[in-house]
Specification:
The protein has about 280 residues and is an alpha/beta fold. Helix content is about 45%, strand content about 15%. The protein contains 10 helices and 7 strands. The chain is elongated and about 75 Å long. InterPro entries: RNaseH_sf, Tc1-like_DDE_dom.
Length: about 280
Amino acid sequence: MFTRAQEAVIVNMVLTNNCIRLREIQANIINDDLIFNNIQRVSLSTLGRILKKNQIYMKQLYRVPFDRNSERVKHLRNEYVEVCIVHFIMVGRRGRNVIGHRAITNVPGQRGGNFTLCAAITQNGVLHHHANLGPYNANLILAFLDRLHEIVTALNQVDQMRYIVVWDNVSFHRAALVHNWFHEHPEFEVLYLPPYSPFLNPIEEFFSAWRWKVYDLRPYDRLPLIQAMEQACDHIEAASVQGWIRDTRRFFQRCLANEDIACDVDEILWPDPARRRDDE
């Protein structure tokens, strides 16, 4: 009934719009007198079989902010990764998509809540952490930076050592007091994460693992919550942090190429080895 070229067009409809419905595909086919000029009618079950034949199934639909892959954001990612590379060298809806790929749709951006834990990680593991039952603010981040400064200067006695602090764009990170702190500590430099780019900061993976570590400690049942939050940080191994850093680096080439990145952990759940980047 359908030629292979026509089936490819149907598949492309789904790849272009993961939340397209079978009835919408049906209408597109009937109304297309160029590619589907030999098709007068088609049932939904037939379309379902064609999609299944091409390994396209129903799956969870992931929402992606409209601005996530705008030219402005991709340019900022490109600049961010170029800086990172230099410093690393120096120191209930459902949709369809191909098996192994997430189904995605674009939505307006929304701001989520903040964690009540501040932590710093390096290639060697968790460097410093501080749990707080209230929201973080400029004064708390200054105290955290002061303690971080004490830790790294005690660990590294090398003259003119440079430290790069990578974090996101929450308002208190850009407070005047915080800017003054970095001005007074020239050995520290701040690098702000581009918008909609948590996949470029391995601390996001740390927090995901940390939440489960807190849960395993059974807060309120065996020990106070804030104590569980602190202890959970000590259960994160350096090998895990190193793996998260490698995962972040896999996105670098895509950002330098200004590619679209659809989901926090990449739209390709099982990446093609030819596209993976894990440069040491």
